[in-house]
């Protein structure tokens, strides 16, 4: 394993052989094997999934702990910092493509699939079909046989608007925390980071309540035609990303309390902030395209 020479940061740190990748792969093996057996009725599949998740999470904890120790030990120089920035940039780009696919599916359904199904060419197949979006009434759901129950669409007021205010506020508090860290005001940084984490948690609770309202009061489900599937795909995956981003910010906050990061060197903080701002931007697109249009 490379190490610093005479107390200086190495030009490029090369870690030694590690057990963590194969240990993580073993955990994921049990998760996938257990899940496939679980959905096929094998009772032991659930236990295999639980064992694999515990194994995998424990491995990640050790892996991240070692990486933090290497960073705080001064082993990460400018080249490593640059590689981290490129890696995070490409990761966020992959997330842009991920959500881009779902936004494209929504656009294609609204602009092409539904109008084409209501065209004269398909009138003989579905004479009662009405090409209207949102597809919320009997005959408009793409189900003349009435196998899709009528439902009510989700409007922007008030839960989605509240969540928009929460996420935008969290972006502001995170930016304040970043500037406070650059100015070496650690107490202010930690305080605003906790506010940001709390706003993320409240967002998730509001979205959970929104889903309960959608299922029980609006009869809006994942099976509610193309509208229901695209609604839950976009908002559900975004909610998962909010959860992941909130965990990232939580761990960064705990590291700040331990004295990690300096005004000059804090890419762990910046990487989590990039991800959170990306999540904010995606939500603005969702708020406009899913709830308003």
Please give a handful of descriptors for the protein shown:
single chain, 293 residues, mainly alpha, Four Helix Bundle (Hemerythrin (Met), subunit A)
Please describe what this structure looks like.
- The protein has 293 residues and is mainly alpha-helical.
- It has two domains: 1-76; 81-292, Up-down Bundle (Four Helix Bundle (Hemerythrin (Met), subunit A)), CATH 1.20.120.
- 69% of the residues lie in helices and 0% in strands.
- It contains seven helices and no strands.
- The protein has helices spanning 20-39, 44-72, 78-117, 159-182, 186-216, 225-257, 267-292.
- α1 runs antiparallel to α2.
- The longest helix has 40 residues, at 78-117.
- The radius of gyration is 24 Å and the shape is globular.
- The termini are far apart.
- Residues 1-7 have low confidence and may be disordered.
Topology:
Layout: H1 20-39, H2 44-72, H3 78-117, H4 159-182, H5 186-216, H6 225-257, H7 267-292
Morphology: globular
The CATH architecture of the largest domain comes to Up-down Bundle
- Mean pLDDT figure: 90
Count of distinct strands? 0
What CATH calls the topology of the largest domain is: Four Helix Bundle (Hemerythrin (Met), subunit A)
Task: State the order of secondary-structure elements, H for helix, E for strand.
Answer: HHHHHHH
The fourth-level CATH homologous superfamily of the largest domain is: Cytochrome c oxidase, subunit III, four-helix bundle
How many helical elements?
Answer: 7
**How much is the radius of gyration in Å?**
24 Å
Strand content: under 5%
Low-confidence stretches: 1-7
Structural class: mainly alpha
């Amino acid at each position: 394993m490379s190490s610093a020479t005479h107390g200086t940061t190495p030009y490029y740190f090369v870690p030694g052989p590690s057990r963590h990748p194969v240990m993580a792969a073993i955990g994921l093996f049990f998760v996938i094997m257990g899940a496939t057996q679980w959905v096929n009725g094998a009772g032991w599949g659930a236990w295999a999934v639980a064992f694999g998740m515990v194994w995998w999470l424990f491995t990640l904890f050790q892996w991240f702990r070692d990486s933090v120790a290497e960073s705080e030990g001064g082993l990460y120089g400018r080249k490593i910092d640059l590689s981290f920035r490129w890696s995070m940039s490409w990761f966020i780009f992959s997330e842009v493509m991920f959500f881009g696919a779902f936004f494209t599916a929504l656009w294609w359904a609204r602009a092409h699939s539904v109008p084409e199904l209501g065209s004269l060419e398909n009138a003989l197949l579905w004479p009662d079909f009405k090409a209207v979006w949102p597809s919320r009434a009997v005959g408009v759901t793409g189900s003349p046989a009435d196998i899709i129950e009528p439902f009510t669409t989700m409007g922007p007021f008030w839960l989605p608007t509240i969540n928009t205010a929460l996420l935008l506020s969290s972006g502001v508090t995170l930016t304040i925390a970043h500037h406070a860290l650059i100015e070496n005001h650690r107490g202010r940084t930690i305080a605003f980071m906790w506010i940001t984490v709390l706003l993320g948690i409240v967002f998730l609770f509001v979205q959970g309540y929104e889903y309960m309202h959608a299922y029980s009061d609006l009869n809006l489900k994942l099976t509610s035609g193309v509208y229901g599937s695209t609604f839950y795909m976009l908002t559900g995956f975004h909610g998962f990303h909010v959860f992941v981003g909130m965990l990232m910010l939580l761990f960064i906050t705990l590291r700040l309390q331990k004295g990690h990061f300096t005004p000059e060197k804090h890419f762990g903080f910046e990487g989590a902030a990039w991800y959170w701002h990306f999540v904010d931007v995606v939500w603005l697109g969702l708020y406009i395209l899913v709830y308003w249009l």
